[in-house]
Design a protein that fits this description.
The protein has helices spanning about 5-15, 20-25, 30-35, 45-90, 95-110, 125-135, 160-170, 205-225, and strands at about 120, 145-155, 175-180, 195-200. With about 230 residues, it is α+β, with helices and mostly antiparallel strands. The chain has a domain at about 95-225. Strands 1-4-2-3 form a 4-stranded mixed sheet. The termini are far apart.
Length: about 230
Amino acid sequence: MWYELKSKAIQLRKRGFSIRDVEHKLGIPRSTLSGWFKKVQLSQKQKARLHHKWKNALVNARQKAVMWHNKQKRQRLYEAEQSAITTFSKINHADPPILELALALLYLGEGSKKNEETALGNSDPTILKFFLLMLQNVYSVPVNKIRCELGLRADQNPDKLKIFWSQELRLPLSCFRQINIDKRTIGSKTYSGYKGVCHIRCGNVAIQRKLVFLAKIFCERVADKDTGS
């Protein structure tokens, strides 16, 4: 049924058009074109042109794939955020026991449990602000009992980052008493936006013990209820 277009298709092929180009231009199935083009000889220049077009098409396809993937990822992130907002709207986040439970679960995962103190380190200022707020509002820990320790990479400026964390956490510079430099990072560049790790400490080990017990009791009770124990 495509035979009347065979000569035109072969002419296009001899001019250096790819099978894909001819397929789109004339609407002839690729399987038919492959059979017609078996005996068509292409010059080195034409082969080079086809290879160049193939490479460009591959680059364009990859770029489109990346764009599609990023678009899909943005959509999934948006949906996840909206779902989280819906769940949050059902929680009374001003309720002290809920706040304390949230702190306990955070502490169970991130807090210091080996030393005889209450301490938590993180590179995310928001997490540390929450931890600090809970220490002050729930456990009435005064500012003069708070001490901060920074863990930095070798190419970071200790004085600048001490000021950064002081401003972020709204703590006086006097709270920042120790800075540790990771010597393993000497010679490697720190990625943009990384401000090191800040550890917030207070000497009250009783807070640590209560938080760990609270988190474990919550997890155990929920797990036992779910398994019917």
